[in-house]
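This section describes the prediction task in plain terms. A model, or a person checking by hand, is given the sequence of a single protein chain and must write out its three-dimensional structure as a string of tokens. No templates, partner chains or ligands are provided. The sample shown here is typical of the held-out split.
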Amino acid sequence: MYSGRQHHYLIQACFLAQQAITLIQLEYSDYAEIPSDGKRYELLEGDLQVTPATSSLHQRVSNRLQRMLEDYSQETGRGEVFNAPIDVILTNQDVVQPDLELVLNPEQVSKRGIEGVPFLLVEVLSPSTTNYDQKSKAQR
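The expected answer:
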């Protein structure tokens, strides 16, 4: 067991380590190194965010909206529809994965994902992520 003084220093060291970790600003190159593990990662102002998998209702709504957007794209001959997971790279420290994207400029589509803000982003709100989606993510 630790003495009172050792325990105090251990707590201080843990606190300082936690502060140092939260001060690190990740960039796209760091984000791109995250192994695929089935989780949904996003980068907002360099901070890594992890969101849970979507529900079946969320998937149904997203699929219906995707069909509507694809119909629009085919009827007008404009744009291409993408669905999550695909990286939308807003800046080097802001990478999001909205549910759906409509891209009108084909030059925005790269091997990395979608570069810059597409014509339309769709985020289907879920009870567990509504606050994050409407506040943190929408500000980007």
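For orientation: The mean pLDDT is 83.
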